[in-house]
Amino acid sequence: MRERLRDETDPLVALTHLLQLCRDEHSVLWAQAADPDIRSRVISAIAPVRAIASTEAQTPLGAPLRAALVNALAVDDVAAVSIARGLAQLLDECFRGSLAASFRRRSPYRPAVGDPIPLGGPDIRKIIEMRPTAPPWRLANRLDETRHIRLAGEWATQFQVVFDYTHFHALQGIITPDTIVATCHPNRSLEEFRLPSDPTDAAFPVGPLNPRRQHRLIDALIGQAVHAGASIVVLPELCLTPSLARSLRLWTRREGGPQLLIAGSYHHLGAAPARRRNTATAWVRGHRRPMTHDKHSPAEHPINEDIQPQGFPELRIHVSADGWHLVIAICRDLLNPQAVHTLAEAGANLILAPAMSERLTPFTGQIAHLVSSGQALVAVANNPAEWNHAGHPEPHHPARALFGHPGLGQQTRLVAAPDIGPGIATMHIGSASISWAQAPSATRSAQHRNASPAAPLAPLPPWAVSLADTLHQRYHALGQRLHDPVTLRPAAVLVLLTEGTAGLQVTLTERAADLTDYPGRLTFPGGGQDAADNGPVATALREAAEEIGLQSDSVYTLGILPSMTDPESKFLVTPVLAWSSHPQYSGALNVAEVTCLRHVPLSQLSARHDDEDLPAMTCRPDSTQGHRARLGVLTAAVLDSVAALLSAHHPA
């Protein structure tokens, strides 16, 4: 050891030699570590070295310092390994700046067993506002490590571990007490993805069924995350195409955009010979080259992911100038215990993971290990919100996100959502506060419209935007799926608002006189739920198309009203409120059910108006009764609710 130190000028190499001696003679070191007399002699032995090192901290090891190191190892009655441990701690303390520079010169650095590896520098106690639930690991350093260096163990043979300093300065400041991490969740169900018709078949490529709509949704969600203050944004697995992932780089160029954007992952064919891959891409502000990660643990259930991982999988650790060790993982990569152990040993302390999993609960133990062993911060973005299985009528709703934080009681927190609509989850680093925010109403409405409408839709008027937000806040949980009642039949009606010469008006149908339910009454278009309907919105739009020929892509869905019991027809009816500037009709009235169609001014829907005030589209009523009396019971109740809501939103 003395011969090695006599000629070594690199502090990193000298420190490695000392730590290797600590590893080789750990039994002797443990025997002497608790002896106060030994500790006193070690302090005295390294005092001359400390005096010289304090003047050479930013330079290679000079001859006087090297000589002092050699002399310190020759103290009588103290094992050399105990002195070596004290010298290693001294070099680590005095030359920590040089250590980072030495690793950067080796980048991309691939350590073998026994080689030094860098450890993350941030002290989590200075970043979070609460006391960590697990003691920081640096308070109990192992024998083969110091605060900034550890020797690689046998785990280095399991994966190709790479320390990458390419984004060293671009990642500086990535985590502060004020940092907010956001995960975005664009998709509702597996029906929005390209998947084989037989779920047992191998699936490749998996991706969004409608890339253009997916792009709009993702842009809206990223914008929502940025508006919420997020500087780190994580998208889910397989929610992108390669071109969409590349285009999202623009977000890190925009003023006020995120500093780091994990652009999900996508299926693609690698270079020749072609290899099926699942790759995550990340964009960093101020840097042109992306960070990437190839998934090495393919899914087998419930989706058989047909990718071909490389034989010797890579774990790439991106090091920042302030000591953060960023790792991108994809879904099941975090269920591989060897991979998680390797990440913990390599000092990974910021793990961001796109996921597409039916359940996130199995991930909690692995992530808790990363948090407790390395004080890591973890964010997992999951997608979609609903999973359906053959033979299981009830869909499964997994957690939308999973966060790991040293300040959380169990080190992890699953994030559920009140419904399956798009939204974002956020975690504030300083306070460990976690929240869920639903997507804006315009994003939700886009999922109820045809992706390619026959004619451009006019923008929503301000009152309609305000009303849609109120409906969502009050009743958003009502619109996911019609309940399966015991004695009532599920149904939905469309309450379509338009602008007329007399102001806001509603579309009503006059029912045929020979019908069993509501003969001759004025009602909304609507009817019973079909097995293929995915919720009340689908039912209402389908029934309107069948009864009055309405084109669903010419209306905006504003929201859902509470379900009501129809006392005459024994339906459980969910009203769906919608608006259109110019409703389009592609077919004629269904004369078997509808006698005529009326656009009735809401201002006339009161007891003082009679049928002479009721405008007709294709016919006039035969009766001279007041038209309020001719409304169906449920129709009248719904109109009263709509009028009450509009009084707070519509200017008229």
UniProtKB/TrEMBL annotation:
Residues 487-625 form the Nudix hydrolase domain. The keyword tRNA-binding does not apply. It comes from the Bacteria. Keywords: Hydrolase, Magnesium, Manganese, Metal-binding. The keyword Manganese applies. Pfam families: NUDIX (PF00293). CDD domains: NUDIX_CoAse_Nudt7. Its cofactor is Mn(2+); Mg(2+). This is NUDIX domain-containing protein.
